[in-house]
Design goal:
With 248 residues, the protein is of the alpha+beta class. Helix content is 33%, strand content 22%. It has a single domain, classed as T-fold (Roll). The strands form three sheets. Strands 6-7-8-9 form a four-stranded antiparallel sheet.
Length: 248
Amino acid sequence: MPITVEIAGRDAAANDDDAAQEAAIGRVFDYFTHIDEKFSTYKDTSEITAINKGTLAPDDRSEEMRLVFTLAEETKKATGGYFDIRKPDGSYDPSGLVKGWAIWNAAHLLEKEGYRNFYVDAGGDIQPYGTNSDGKPWVVGIKNPWNESENVKVVHLGSHEGVATSGTYIRGEHIYDPHTGGPANLIASLTVIGPNVYEADRFATAAFAMGKDGIRFIESLPGFEGYMIDNDKMATMTTGFQKYELHR
């Protein structure tokens, strides 16, 4: 998936010049490569593939893998079972949680180096920090599921707040309803704004699996807002979503 990292102009980091920024961004991409090598279900050499093949015992799993499985179990309980990394065929696919978690960790890498104004975007899930080069909040577009060149909404995010969208218009039917075992395809997209991208991503995945009930689930979560587009091209938003809308 496409990954974008932008540091907004000069920042508070020590030795902050073009070379330093380039090196910092390089370390972020190295981290994403590491995550892909460990968690990709498409790679025969990944740790998750070894788990699915039964060639890696639970006691031999890495610390990162154990953490992700723990977070996945917590999310499963918090969503009434609508988030489940165990697929109908019995294999594990933690990508519905790992992407947001990895973006959040990547942002922390930049923060630890002293950067305060940047964003990290992986596959449309975004973690902004601080402000953009103009000193204004970062702005994010929500795509039209039937026309990716068009934004149906544009939102501005507070520092550290994250946004994630679940849908079928890019990757096809890749989310399933754990309660039925069938594909989740009752809505077109669901965008969630949360305290950070990890929280937004995991709950966006679960809410999408809930179909039209998903937006009500997001409404029930303190500190979260959502915007759902159903298959009839009708939009429903949570009661506090409008405060994020950018009106031009």
